[in-house]
Amino acid sequence: MQRSTYEKVFLWFFLPAVVLIYTIKAYPGFLTGLMGIDDPFGTFFFVGGKSPNFWYQTLYTGIIAVICLNLLLLGRNPYSKKSTPLSKYQKLKFTSILIAQTVGFYFFPFVMPMLKTGVWQDRAPQVIVQVEERTSRVDLEKEINYSPTAEKFKFLLYADNQLVPESHYELENYRKDGSFFATAINLYSPLPAGTEVKATAFHLAHKMAHVYLSPAFFSNFAFLYMFLIIPLGVWFFGKRYCSWICACGNLAETVGVTPWGNKWVKEGTPRGDASMKAEWIQMIMLIFSVVVGLSAILNAYHVIHPATYDRLWYLQDFLTDFIFGSLIGILFYPFYGTRMWCRYGCPMARWMKIFGRWSKSKFAVVPNDNCQGIGACTQACPMGIDVASYAHKEKKPIETPFGLAGTACIGCGGCIDSCPVDALSFQNVTAKEFIIADAKKVSS
Ligand code: SF4
Ligand code: SF4
After folding, report:
1. Ligand 2, atom 7: nearest CA belongs to which residue?
2. Contacts for 276-280 with beta carbons within 8 Å, 24 or more apart?
3. If you measure from the C-alpha of residue 350 to the centroid of ligand 1, how many angstroms do you get, rounded to a whole number?
4. Do residues 232 and 357 share a domain?
5. What mean pLDDT do residues 266-277 have?
6. I need a labelling partner for 195 at 20 to 30 A (CA). Which of 180, 252, 276, 326 fits?
7. Is 40 exposed, middle or buried (0-12, 13-18, 19+ CB in 10 A)?
8. Same domain (yes/no): 344, 417
9. Which pLDDT band holds residue 208 (cuts at 50, 70, 90)?
């Protein structure tokens, strides 16, 4: 792949920056440990009172929003070599991405809670108390707003900079407007005179994502989402969720239409039989997610040891989320295109594909007899599908629709909008039409 000097310089920064950003986001306590700071939850990385996750999401959403607005305002087709206008489909797609990302994945989870509570900080101000004589009770000079369920606003207590386990104390608190405020700490073992007590509370990073499917096993909403809403969407619209809505797909889709991203997709995306066969890896990821989800149920009924359950969750966090979803998913953009995670990792994508095939989803990309065998469609496909092989044979049109039965198509429309002779379109076709078209492909 030919790269300009600017691009090479960018890559020198991009690779270490991605590793650092995702490590801070996922394992801040590991980094503070390496730095020799006794801060197992990585509160050191809070900036301006906000968590690393907040800043990460702000950057992530900002990049997507800027690219979408640029595309929608300029109105140029990013898939075509010629200067043609942005199609209606792409306008709708990038508007959907913009709204899904800024409203669904940013405003609701990160801005609305601040508006609701009027609290900007993800970290409560630290209260420091110097213990003057041996005591089991420490009055907090300033109350600390925290969440007793711990996942959202976790209370932390340090004695002489050592974290005190939650099992070693209980909090005196009061409740106001649904929020908890700690006013004093009762310790089960007294603290010696001279101990410095630090108390604070902060938001933990949200690492669970619905694309791992496992939440469907312990959340009613996730269950409905995975087993009703997503299947219905797949039946009517194929895997367009991946190119119109999903947070991971939003970045892949927008970066993939920038000048460099376009080149990464065209020249880097693995294509050919071997790369298609390797998509079975995604099946392993799906099975693993289901096992992790089932372990939550088994743990709730005390069928498996809690330690086994914890290990499985840790593995999912580390392997699926951190290594595959974050590092490989993003680091590989400049080398193998923007959809490595979506093609080989994402459990939900495999579930959508299985359901689409089984339910005979009507979604299809349909070639017509305009095809002249140019091949721009195959090059534009971020999922490595050989679109041209469905459109022509030795430059003669064969008009074979394809959907989720044999391909990982996400309905991005890149192939359609890159074709200079309008030889492709999206259509709803019945199972019978697929069979007829397949027979045509074989006989031509
Ligand atoms: S493949 Fe998975 S991660 Fe990628 S866009 Fe689809 S649902 Fe999202
Ligand atoms: S076949 Fe076309 S619509 Fe489907 S993923 Fe590839 S480029 Fe997008």
Report:
1. 381
2. 276/384, 278/344, 279/343, 279/344, 279/408
3. 9
4. yes
5. 96
6. 180
7. middle
8. yes
9. low
Ligand 2 center–CA 152 separation, angstroms: 39
Average pLDDT over residues 56-76: 97
Whether 325 contacts 345, CB under 8 Å: yes
Report the separation in Å between the CA atom of 353 and the middle of ligand 2, taken as the mean of its atom positions: 14
Task: State which residues form the domain around 368.
Answer: 209-444
Task: Say if 365 falls within a structural domain.
Answer: yes
For residues 220 and 334, membership in a common domain is answered with yes
Predicted structure pTM score: 0.87
Q: Is the pLDDT of residue 179 over 80?
A: no
Contacts 24+ apart (CB under 8 A), 55-59: 56/21, 56/25, 57/105, 57/106, 57/109, 57/110, 58/106, 58/110
Residues 159 and 293 in one domain: no
Position 408 in a domain: yes
Whether the per-residue pLDDT at 258 is higher than 90: the answer is: yes
DSSP state of 205: P
- Nearest atom within ligand 1 for CA of residue 349: 1
Closest to 201 measured CA to CA, from 43, 23, 28, 33: 43
Nearest CA to ligand 1 atom 6: 242
Nearest 10 degrees: Cα torsion 192, 195, 200, 205 = -90
Mutual angle of helices 247-255 and 52-74, in 10-degree steps:
50
Ligand 2 pocket test, candidate residues 269, 365, 390, 402, most atoms within 8 A of CB: 365
Residue 248 near ligand 1, beta carbon < 6 Å: yes
pLDDT range class, residue 306, cuts 50, 70, 90: confident
Domain count for the chain, please give it: 2
- Cβ pair 400, 437 in contact under 8 A: yes
**Atom 5, ligand 2: residue with shortest CA distance:** 409
Q: Are residues 141 and 241 in the same domain?
A: no
| Residue 211 binned pLDDT confidence (cut-offs 50, 70, 90) | confident
What pLDDT, on a 0 to 100 scale, did the predictor assign at position 100? Answer: 97
Q: Which residues contact 40 (CB under 8 A, 6 or more apart)?
A: 29, 32, 33, 163
pLDDT digits over 31-44, tens only? 998 998 878 778 88
Is residue 312 within 8 A of residue 291, CB to CB? The reply is yes
Q: What is the mean pLDDT of residues 94-99?
A: 98
Q: Whose CA is nearest to atom 4 of ligand 2?
A: 409
Choosing from 146, 171, 203, the residue where a domain stops is 203
144 and 182 in contact (C-beta within 8 Å)? yes
Q: Which is more confident, 212 or 139? A: 139
Q: Are residues 193 and 230 in the same domain?
A: no
Please list every protein residue whose CB sits less than 6 Å from any atom of ligand 2. 365, 380-381, 383, 385, 387, 409-415
